Amino acid sequence: MIDIRLVRENPELFRKDLEKRRDNEKLEWLEDLIKQDKEYLQILKEVEELRSKRNRLTQEVAQSKKAGKDVSKILDEAKKIPDKIKKLEDAKEQLEKSIKNYLMRLPNITHGTVPYGKDSSENVEVKKWGKLPQKKFQLVGHGELAEKLGVADFKKAAQVTGAGFYYLMGDLALLNQALCNFAVDFMVKKNYKLIVPPLMLNRKAYEGVTDLGDFESVMYKIEGEDLYMIATSEHPIASLFMNEVLTEEDMPLKMVGYSPCFRKEIGSHGVDTRGLFRVHQFWKIEQFIFCKPEDSWKHHEELIKNSEELFQALELPYRIVNICTGDIGTVAAKKYDLEVWMDKQKEYKEACSCSNCTDYQARRLNIKYGKRGSGDLKLIHTLNDTAIATSRAMVAILENNQNEDGSIDIPKVLWPYMAGKKKIITQK
């Protein structure tokens, strides 16, 4: 949520940022917000003046009675004041609701290093790592290959659940778990605290972490309940300290979430009917940091470095892109994506998303920090990044590590988690 005080002090900052985002609709929202806030401040002034007038008239009545004067006109004037205040208070309440709605839905201010661009085609490549595979045979698509190997069943999953779901079997199920265990061990060794969060959140908590106006269409709502299935463990971890005050001495708080995630994945891309890249359910290990504002940009670089180290250990080629203003979304002030090479598709595809949300989530969730014994409280900064989303990592492994006989080389770093297996071969 953006800060109304900053809007009052520097509205041009928000205008320029929305222009960089090419978001004309939200530019209109901003102008309406500025107008409504002026009305709100005027009402506050008028209410204060009426209350002051009521006090003054009360004193006049007392003085006039003491002097034996007629007070009927003064009393008539005083009697009208409560109704005037009530009308103004009602108008103020409506304005407060509208203003809060705008503050919750207008996006974070982007960092100066975010590149200008209209959409994902104008994201800026920061670096590349790894040598691309040089296969001398025709690659098989990961979904088709997984079915041939007998380690996945998309057809039966579609029959019992629907498109975008899958059965993992045998060594592919083991690979899914190996990726989770490897990523958790990696992050815990870096002193990130392991969190297994609730898989559902109520609306109040969800409104604290993301703009439901943008996000609700891709979330699963529990019918008849004030609960949503989580789309990422980032959301319940961010909510962990809702309405709390943290101590400066304990900063930063570094956490790693382990959970399945649930998304409708609607839109132009749809879902994979025979694959793992774009699905309704997947497992993800998520990095999360609560920190002081002056440290957040340092931690943003730390998070993406962690992701790079994980994919380097898996020996999967990747590139890092700096997400442009037209593609960055509502919550982040800056975002990197790690895109892993998919050899069958011959392109880099998103595998990790690393965001510095500055104080945007903290303001929505009311999370502050301060020194022990001090009343000086400040909003905390929150950051998140994917460590590994197993479904997309498995697609990369199935494509990049594919052999001509159809077997799959398991990355060496995962061997200790694979019951001694080094290849995925045909399963019965």
Would you kindly provide a written description of the structure presented here, covering whatever features stand out?
The mean pLDDT is 94. A hairpin with a 4-residue loop joins strand 11 and strand 12. The chain is elongated. It has 428 residues and is an alpha+beta fold. The chain folds into two domains: 102 residues, Helix Hairpins (Orthogonal Bundle), CATH 1.10.287; 305 residues, BirA Bifunctional Protein, domain 2 (2-Layer Sandwich), CATH 3.30.930.10. The strands form five sheets. An eight-stranded mixed beta sheet has the order 1-10-11-12-15-9-8-4. A three-stranded mixed beta sheet has the order 7-13-14, with no helix packed on it. Helix 2 packs antiparallel against helix 3 and helix 5 packs across helix 13. It contains 13 helices and 17 strands. Helices cover 42% and strands 19% of the residues.
Q: Given the helix and strand composition, which structural class is it? A: alpha+beta
Helix count from the secondary structure assignment: 13
Taken from the alpha-carbon principal axes, the silhouette is elongated
From the 3D structure, determine the CATH topology of the largest domain. BirA Bifunctional Protein, domain 2
Report the order of strands and helices: HHHHEHEHEHEEHHEHEEEHEEEHEEEHEE
Q: What profile does the largest beta sheet have?
A: 8 strands, mixed
What low-confidence regions span 5 or more consecutive residues with pLDDT below 50? none
Strand content: 15-25%
Helicity, as a percent range: 40-55%
The CATH class assignment of the largest domain is Alpha Beta
Please identify which CATH superfamily of the largest domain we are dealing with.
Bira Bifunctional Protein, Domain 2
C-alpha-based Rg, rounded: 28 Å
Mean pLDDT equals 94
Ends apart, CA distance between termini: 53 Å
Main sheet: strand order: 1-10-11-12-15-9-8-4
